[in-house]
Specification:
Strand order of the largest sheet: 10-13-11-12
Distance between the termini: 48 Å
Strand content: 15-25%
CATH superfamily of the largest domain: DNA polymerase, Y-family, little finger domain
CATH class of the largest domain: Alpha Beta
Helix content: 25-40%
Structural class: alpha+beta
CATH topology of the largest domain: Dna Ligase, domain 1
Largest sheet: 4 strands, antiparallel
Number of helices: 16
Order of helices and strands: HEHEEHEHHEHEEHEHEHHHHHEHEEHEH
DNA sequence: AAGCAGAGGTAAGGTCTC
DNA sequence: CCAAGAGACCTTACCTCT
């Protein structure tokens, strides 16, 4: 989807069309960012103010980063993952709006169901991206897939008012690269025979899976383009990047990828983390940290219960003021979704980590997930507890171990 | 009894993606 | 001086069991 989060907001506020709009920032709601009607009687005609015009700008954008920027905003050099303060400097006239996750999810479901009605074999790749297998869709091969891609684009636009970019290729690897070629609202077809002319001149960073680290390492080894990568001896790559990554790099440089489009998958872990408004000291801010810690545990527990999962590996993550991170985890004998159990186990993990520096982030994770129904079945319990046999007693009546 | 290989689990850190 | 949140997966090390 093109500039997905921003495009969703433009549907609601069409008066922002063409303006530099940036989504992201701190914990503000849209009401904080909208100038209300002058008499204060309500949001009659919302007026948007450029980010630079906010007094106490830092309080508004906090320590947040950009999630999405409209194409008008990208002209100013702002883009995803950039710190909000830096973005405000680069583009003072930008309109900054917070993410409306509920609305984003609604449109995510909408565009995905539009696709599966046409082409049922679809793999989720986050809120705004999917892989689609055209192989068995009637007409999926016409004009190399262009006809079907156009149909999908039009159907999504008719249903949502949103545009997307589609790449069609013999496999997922090349399709992903192709989807970047004609943004926004474009279609690109890549054939196997295009490898040399179209793919090999590109930088290795265009390969999905080669990030900043591998890109830098390859550059230091004198490998910049995908063609140069393809020319390397697989053994040499394996020597530098390990057996599996090295072999993979050679394969993808030759455009080879036989990974299937996976339509269903189970979650492996669930987590909650938060960056504090200011760095906190483990001793001096103990009470505040404790509240945040407990809240994170309760939210993970709630997520697990809502989705019907239990997990036995409880972990914590923290980030120090120097941005270094540490993780600790502990595996319980039996999986859980209970907030008090998670809180207690995570507390033990916290004791194993150095707390001499100030902290900027704290996170709680539950991994090794199994579906609650499967766990109950294998534990020999009835799959559905009857009324009155709550699995989660009132936490106030339960000691924290 | 000692030694070793392979499988599988746990833990810590890191990379990458959207 | 600035750097989110959520999740998947990889590597390495170490341990236990067979």
């Amino acid at each position: 989807m093109d500039a997905f989060f921003a495009s969703v907001e433009l549907l609601r506020y069409p008066q922002l069309k063409g303006l530099p709009v940036v989504i992201g920032g701190g914990r503000r709601t849209v009401d904080d960012l909208l100038l209300q009607s002058p008499d204060g009687s309500g949001p009659r005609e919302p007026r948007f103010i450029p980010v630079a015009d906010f007094p106490l700008l830092k309080d508004y954008v906090g320590r947040g980063v950009i999630t999405t920027a409209t194409y008008a905003a990208r002209q100013f050099g702002v883009g995803s993952a950039m710190g909000m303060m830096k973005a405000a400097r680069l583009c003072p006239q930008a309109i900054v709006l917070p993410v409306d996750f509920d609305e984003v999810r609604r449109f995510s479901r909408l565009f995905k169901s539009t696709i599966t009605e046409i082409a049922p074999v679809m793999q989720d790749r986050g809120v705004d991206e999917v892989y689609i297998d055209f192989t068995d869709v009637p007409g999926g091969q016409r004009e190399g897939g262009r006809v079907l891609a156009r149909l999908i684009q039009k159907s999504i636009f008719d249903r949502t008012g949103l545009t997307c970019s589609i790449g069609v290729a013999p496999n997922r690897l090349l399709a992903k690269m192709a989807s970047e070629f004609n943004k926004p609202n474009g279609i690109s077809i890549v054939y196997e025979s295009d490898l040399q002319a179209t793919i090999w001149p590109l930088n290795v960073r265009k390969i999905n899976g080669i990030g900043p680290k591998a890109g830098e390492k390859l550059a230091a080894l004198g490998v910049h383009t995908i063609g140069e990568l393809a020319a390397q001896d697989p053994q040499w790559l394996m020597g530098h990047f390990g057996k599996s990554t090295g072999a993979w790099m050679h394969r993808v440089a030759w455009g080879r990828d036989d990974s299937p489009v996976v339509t269903e998958s189970e979650p492996v872990s669930m987590s909650r983390e938060t960056t504090f408004e200011r760095d906190l000291h483990a001793v001096r801010d103990k009470a505040e940290l404790g509240r945040i810690f407990t809240d994170l545990c309760q939210r993970v527990a709630q997520d697990l219960q809502r989705k019907g999962y239990v997990g036995k590996t409880i972990g914590i993550k923290l980030r120090y003021d120097d941005f270094k991170t540490a993780t600790r985890d502990h595996t319980l004998p039996a999986p859980t979704d209970d907030a008090a159990t998670i809180r207690h186990t995570a507390g033990l993990c916290l004791k194993r980590v150095p707390l001499d520096r100030r902290l900027r982030l704290l996170g709680v994770r539950v991994g090794a997930l199994v579906r609650l129904s499967d766990h109950l079945a294998s534990a020999g319990e009835p799959p559905c507890a009857g009324p009155g046999t709550a699995r989660h007693p009132d936490p106030h009546t339960v000691p924290l171990f």
